[in-house]
Amino acid sequence: MENTEVKNEVIEETVTEVKAEKADKKESKAPRKDGKREFKKFNDKKNLLEDKVVSIGRVTKVTKGGRHFRFSATVVVGNRKGLVGIGNGKANEVPEAIKKAIQVANKNVVKVALIDNRTIPHEAIAQVGRARVLIKPAPEGTGIKAGGSARVILELAGVKDVISKSLGSNTKVNVAKATLEALVMQKTPEHIAELRGKKVEEL
């Protein structure tokens, strides 16, 4: 009997220790009390980012219990002063998907080179999937000659005078990503001169 009681006490102590360890792990992995994830933020007073939804998709999964819907959202954020980013989020509800997409877009914000804070330095072509997008600088007063998701990217990036054309597929998400890639390719004369170790006048 004594051996049985000792064994039971040992087992109880072991179970208590395991439960305590699990509780510690849960506390360490617990989310922040304010419910917000930590991510790179650009939303300060100087760089307040706007957001626009590019597309919302729905996927239906048919099971014995019925149909289950999931939504995906693609969102573009930018401050209209050279900062722009794109993100995708998925959830069971549209608002939650958009919220996730905005968080991802904030993490992916990039700086775009602009000339006189209105147009791009040079022509560029970028391709994502089957979508190919051409962007060209334009004289002052031209405005944004672009449509669809390409226009959203260019507006939020702060480009005021530009000509854009879709040369391939018109898939909204891929066109938006291709437009962003073309903007990332842009290099100012000052940047090129710095890379070559020369002055702008020498180029």
Short key terms for the protein model shown above:
203 residues, alpha+beta, Double Stranded RNA Binding Domain, Ribosomal Protein S5, domain 2, four-stranded antiparallel β-sheet, four-stranded mixed β-sheet, 5 helices, 8 strands
Commentary on this structure:
With 203 residues, the chain is of the alpha+beta class. It is 36% helix and 28% strand. Helix 3 packs parallel to helix 4. The relative contact order is 0.12.
Quickly describe the structure.
The chain has 203 residues and is α+β, with helices and mostly antiparallel strands. Helices cover 36% and strands 28% of the residues. It has 2 domains: 50-110, Double Stranded RNA Binding Domain, CATH 3.30.160; 111-194, Ribosomal Protein S5, domain 2 (2-Layer Sandwich), CATH 3.30.230.
Explain the layout of strands and helices.
Blueprint: H1 2-29, E1 50-63, E2 66-78, E3 83-91, H2 94-107, E4 110-111, E5 124-128, E6 131-137, E7 144-145, H3 148-157, E8 162-166, H4 172-184, H5 189-196
Parallel strand pairs: 7-8
Antiparallel strand pairs: 1-2, 2-3, 3-4, 5-6, 6-8
Helix pairs in contact: 3-4
Number of helices, counting only DSSP H or I runs of 4 residues or more: 5
* Basic shape: elongated
- Tell me the strand order in the biggest sheet: 1-2-3-4
Strands, count: 8
Question: Could you give the distance between the termini?
Answer: 95 Å
